[in-house]
């Protein structure tokens, strides 16, 4: 999807949400699509999206090779692009975004809320999820049971999960300790159900979990569960900073 490469007009329009290839063929036939001021002759016309001016019904396309969305994932929705029976995070987006084929970067459990990045930038997703990058993820959690300084110390050393895996050190902060405790935990890896399993390793149960940040990206407190917004340029640049050579950790 490089901006500097020639691409088929119908593919570009499909990716930008102008309908199926068949619908786009019709748009072109009806002379509603113009390239550099001339009606496009055929769907297979090759254009340079970053340079050629493409208009549909007189509106110039803003060429965006990639889309980056921050979602406050609600409980009860799967971190997936499709599922036979359950609602998935992509279902929460309007068709203009779905047409760009975003996918969730990593997974939150069905009952977990909070920050989920959706993008169609596979390279960035790969880097963010790479175990080599140790991208920090911070969670707010409610725990059944009294979380203690011993737990903080155990997490700092790394705990042994039920399958024998010793986690990397995690930073546990106690916000409130009681029969029900509130904590903030930052981890630097992303094993399946990691936060729940880390608390299980010290004999406690997570009753509520919400991701607050991932690397430099913080959940926007204005987003209610189920709401989303595009990342700002600064947020995208900060995420791409993880990409820089030498940031392998
Ligand atoms: N850890 C978990 O246990 N669940 C999540 O959804 C994310 C991290």
The SS-based structural class is alpha+beta
Number of helices: 7
Unique bound compounds = uracil
| CATH architecture assignment name of the largest domain | 2-Layer Sandwich
Gross morphology: elongated
Mean pLDDT: 92
- Characterize the biggest β-sheet: 9 strands, mixed
Q: Uncertain regions: pLDDT < 50 for 5+ in a row?
A: none
Describe this structure as you would to a colleague.
With 249 residues, the protein is of the alpha+beta class. The protein has 3 domains: 54 residues, Structural Genomics Hypothetical 15.5 Kd Protein In mrcA-pckA Intergenic Region, Chain A (Roll), CATH 3.10.290.10; 91 residues, 2-Layer Sandwich (Alpha-Beta Plaits), CATH 3.30.70.580; 78 residues, Alpha-L RNA-binding motif (Alpha-Beta Plaits, 2-Layer Sandwich). Helix content is 22%, strand content 27%. The protein contains 7 helices and 15 strands. The strands form 3 sheets. Strands 7, 8, 9, 10, 11, 12, 13, 14 and 15 form a 9-stranded mixed β-sheet that branches. Strands 3-2-5-6 form a 4-stranded antiparallel β-sheet, with no helix packed on it. A hairpin with a 2-residue loop joins strand 13 and strand 14. It is elongated, with a radius of gyration of 22 Å. The model has no long low-confidence stretch (mean pLDDT 92). Bound molecules: uracil (URA). Uracil (URA) binds next to helix 6.
């Amino acid at each position: 999807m490089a901006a500097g490469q020639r691409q088929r007009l119908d593919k570009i329009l499909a990716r930008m949400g102008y309908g199926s290839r068949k619908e786009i063929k019709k748009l072109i036939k009806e002379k509603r699509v113009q390239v550099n001021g001339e009606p496009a002759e055929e769907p297979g016309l090759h254009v340079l999206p970053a340079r050629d001016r493409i208009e549909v019904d007189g509106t110039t396309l803003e060429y965006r090779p990639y889309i980056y969305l921050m979602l406050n994932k609600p409980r009860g929705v799967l971190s997936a692009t499709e599922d036979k029976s359950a609602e998935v995070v992509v279902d929460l987006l309007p068709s203009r975004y779905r047409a760009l084929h975003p996918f969730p970067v990593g997974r939150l459990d069905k009952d977990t809320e909070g920050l989920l990045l959706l993008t169609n930038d596979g390279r960035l997703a790969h880097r963010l999820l790479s175990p080599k990058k140790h991208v920090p993820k911070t969670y707010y959690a409610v725990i059944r049971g009294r979380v203690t300084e011993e737990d903080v110390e155990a997490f700092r050393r790394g705990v042994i999960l039920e399958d024998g895996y010793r986690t990397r050190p995690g930073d546990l902060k106690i916000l409130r300790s009681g029969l029900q405790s509130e904590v903030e935990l930052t981890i630097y890896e992303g094993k399946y159900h990691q936060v729940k399993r880390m608390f299980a390793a010290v004999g406690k149960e997570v009753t509520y979990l919400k991701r607050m940040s991932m690397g430099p990206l913080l959940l926007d407190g204005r987003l209610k569960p189920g709401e989303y917004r595009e990342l700002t340029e600064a947020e995208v640049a900060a995420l791409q900073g993880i990409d820089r050579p030498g940031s392998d950790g």
